[in-house]
C-alpha cells in the first residue's frame, strides 16, 4: 500500500496512487480517471492541473492490471476468517456462500486469502488490486474505529463492507444488520410472555456488533421501566460456549435470578442453555432463553434466536462493490437490514 506524507503526497519510498494525484490536484479520483481515459470529458484547466500533478508525482497507471481486469472475469478479494474455538456460529460460512453466489451471477468469483491481522489485510488487498488479481475487495466485521476503509480508499482500492464504522461510514458502501433492533425484539417477545427480570449475556465492550446488541437490550428494558428490576443482570464475557455456561450460572446463583435471558450470540445461548439444565431447570418453562444468529445448533436444541438475513446481505454487498468498481470508486450506498425473531421452545413453552 502506498504510504503518504501530507495530503496527496507520497512518502519517501512510496509509489503514487490515483488517490495521491486526486488529493494534490484537489479533484475526485473519477476526474483523474477521466483525464487518463476520457480527457474530452474534463475542462481544459482542470485537465492541465491534473496532468501537471501526474507528472510531478510520477504517477504511472498500472495498464497491465487494467488490461487483465478488462479481459477476464473479475475476481473479488476476501480475507478468510480464522476458525473460532468453542463457537457454534456459522454466519461467516453463510456470508461467504451468499457472496460467492452473488459474485458468480455478476461474472465475478471470490478469491480467498489469509492475513495475520487487519493491517496485513489492507496491505494484501492493495497488492492484489495493484497487480490486477482482483477487481475489488469485500471487508467483513468492521470495528467501530476500523482503519481498513480509510486505508483502502487512500490506496484507490474499490471495496464494500459487511458492517460499518462508528464514523465516516458515508464515504464507502456497506450493508449491515440492525443488531440493536434484534435484541430489542427479543426483549419485547419476553415481556409479552410476562417476564420482568430479563438478563443479558454479552461481549466485552468495544465491538460494533456486541455493543449494538447490548444497546438494543438496554433501550427495550428502559422503555418498559424494567432496568431496576433487572439490576446487575447484564453480564459480559468471551463469545464461547463455556463462557455462556459460566455467565448463566452466575446469574442463576443470585438471590433474585432472571426469569429470562437474551444472549448476544447463539454460542453464548447454547452455553446458557446447558447451565439452565445443569441447575435442574427446564429452558422455556423455568427460564426463557433467546440467542442471536439462528445457527443450526439453535435449531437443533430448540433455542429461540434472531435470524440475520445473510443471503440478502451477501447479495447487496456484492452489488455495492460492483457499483463502486463501475463508478471508479465514486458510488456509495448503505443498507441496514432487520433480523427476524425465530421463536422456539426455549422461550415459548407453555
Automatic annotation (TrEMBL):
<dbReference type="InterPro" id="IPR028082">
    <property type="entry name" value="Peripla_BP_I"/>
</dbReference>
<dbReference type="Pfam" id="PF13377">
    <property type="entry name" value="Peripla_BP_3"/>
</dbReference>
<keyword id="KW-0805">Transcription regulation</keyword>
<protein>
    <submittedName>
        <fullName>LacI family DNA-binding transcriptional regulator</fullName>
    </submittedName>
</protein>
<keyword id="KW-0238">DNA-binding</keyword>
<dbReference type="GO" id="GO:0003677">
    <property type="term" value="F:DNA binding"/>
</dbReference>
<dbReference type="InterPro" id="IPR010982">
    <property type="entry name" value="Lambda_DNA-bd_dom_sf"/>
</dbReference>
<dbReference type="Pfam" id="PF00356">
    <property type="entry name" value="LacI"/>
</dbReference>
<dbReference type="InterPro" id="IPR000843">
    <property type="entry name" value="HTH_LacI"/>
</dbReference>
<feature type="domain" description="HTH lacI-type">
    <location>
        <begin position="16"/>
        <end position="70"/>
    </location>
</feature>
<dbReference type="InterPro" id="IPR046335">
    <property type="entry name" value="LacI/GalR-like_sensor"/>
</dbReference>
<keyword id="KW-0804">Transcription</keyword>
Amino acid at each position: 500500500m502506498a504510504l503518504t506524507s501530507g495530503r496527496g503526497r507520497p512518502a519517501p519510498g512510496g509509489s503514487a496512487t490515483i488517490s495521491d494525484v486526486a488529493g494534490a490536484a484537489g479533484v475526485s479520483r473519477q476526474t483523474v480517471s477521466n483525464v487518463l481515459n476520457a480527457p474530452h470529458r474534463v475542462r481544459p484547466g482542470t485537465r492541465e492541473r491534473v496532468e501537471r500533478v501526474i507528472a510531478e508525482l510520477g504517477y504511472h497507471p498500472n495498464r497491465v492490471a487494467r488490461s487483465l481486469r478488462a479481459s477476464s472475469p473479475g475476481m473479488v478479494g476476501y480475507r478468510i476468517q480464522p476458525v473460532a474455538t468453542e463457537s457454534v456460529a456459522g454466519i461467516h460460512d453463510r456470508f461467504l456462500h451468499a457472496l460467492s453466489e452473488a459474485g458468480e451471477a455478476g461474472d465475478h468469483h471470490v478469491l480467498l486469502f489469509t492475513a495475520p491481522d487487519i493491517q496485513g489485510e489492507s496491505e494484501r488487498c492493495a497488492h492484489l488490486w495493484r497487480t490486477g488479481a482482483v477487481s475489488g475487495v469485500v471487508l467483513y466485521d468492521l470495528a467501530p474505529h476500523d482503519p481498513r476503509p480509510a486505508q483502502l480508499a487512500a490506496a484507490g482500492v474499490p471495496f464494500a463492507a459487511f458492517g460499518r464504522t462508528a464514523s465516516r461510514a458515508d464515504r464507502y458502501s456497506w450493508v449491515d444488520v440492525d443488531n440493536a433492533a434484534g435484541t430489542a425484539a427479543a426483549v419485547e417477545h419476553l415481556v409479552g410472555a410476562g417476564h420482568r427480570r430479563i438478563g443479558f449475556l454479552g461481549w466485552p465492550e468495544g465491538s460494533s456488533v456486541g455493543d449494538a446488541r447490548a444497546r438494543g437490550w438496554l433501550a427495550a428494558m428502559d422503555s418498559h421501566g424494567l432496568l431496576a428490576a433487572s439490576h446487575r443482570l447484564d453480564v459480559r464475557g468471551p463469545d464461547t460456549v463455556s463462557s455462556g455456561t459460566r455467565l448463566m450460572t452466575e446469574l442463576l446463583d443470585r438471590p433474585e435470578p432472571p426469569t429470562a435471558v437474551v444472549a448476544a450470540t447463539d454460542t453464548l445461548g447454547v452455553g446458557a442453555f446447558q447451565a439452565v439444565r445443569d441447575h435442574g431447570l427446564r429452558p422455556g418453562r423455568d427460564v426463557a432463553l433467546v440467542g442471536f444468529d439462528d445457527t443450526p445448533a439453535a435449531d437443533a436444541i430448540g433455542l429461540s434466536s434472531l435470524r440475520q438475513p445473510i443471503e440478502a446481505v451477501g447479495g447487496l454487498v456484492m452489488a455495492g462493490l460492483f457499483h463502486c468498481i463501475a463508478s471508479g470508486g465514486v458510488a456509495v450506498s448503505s443498507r441496514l437490514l432487520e433480523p427476524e425473531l425465530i421463536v422456539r421452545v426455549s422461550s415459548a413453552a407453555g
